[in-house]
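W.,

You were right to be curious about this one. When I first looked at the sequence I had no strong expectations either way, so I just let the prediction run and decided to look at it fresh. Below is the sequence, 268 residues in total, followed by the output.
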Amino acid sequence: MAGMTPLAYALAAVALAAVAPAAADDYASDWARTSKAEARLIAGAAGQAAVEVRLAPGAITYWRNPGDSGAPPSFDFAGSRNLARADVSFPAPRRIAEPDGSDAFGYDDAVVFPIAVAALDASRPVELRLKFDYAVCEKLCLPAKAELTLTLPQGGASPYAAAIAAAAAAVPRMSDLDALGGALEASGADAWRLCAKAEPGPPRDLFIEAPEGWWFATKPAADSDGRACFALELQQKPDGAAPPVKVRATLTGGAASREFPLVVAAKP
């Protein structure tokens, strides 16, 4: 999905203006609807909330690293009341093949972004006020904006608690490559091979988040000795820069998704 000029982005924003929201309940805000998506805030157990996004058939939205193109979502809680902290988590993404041969990293159908909420004063409710910006892509990539407000109930059983818990369980857990029975080896100039212990479950995939100006492409490689393997290729780096470089790796599939730091060094 090609990038957009500022003018095209502004025109697209007008085309994607929200329509009248649906009715809310005590544990959910109104839906903010666009032509291809809708978003709302939902409350779960104490200290838990989430942004729920539903997408039209064929539409996708993005992870914090959107892949070859697209834009990550942003969450702005300025203006919230009695809020000390709101920490948003990202469920594990999937790799989505685009018609032009590129890869998007994100979600289709629906996604729930869990939010860990801390109050300034635990005796009073938190009112979340969120400006949520995200991209919705089908044949065209269009920006979507939602302004959402929800006062989190201080008691009762939320009908959304299970959905938020399931989304939280899909967030990759912190680990390290040794704990995953893995290793990273240089396989050539600007090329590496990463292998980790195979596990029962969905097929593994690997996502690399590098500092600004760096880009690593990943793809599955032949498994080795009961390990799931991936090829990494350095496709972009800042002028004058060279490995080693510290990156964040996310390994999905298997028994559970894991996230771990990685240092990618040049071949000796």
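Here's what jumped out at me. Residues 6-15 form the longest helix (10 residues). And, maybe more interesting for your project: Residues 6-171 form a domain with the Immunoglobulin-like fold (CATH 2.60.40.1250).

Coffee later to discuss?

I.
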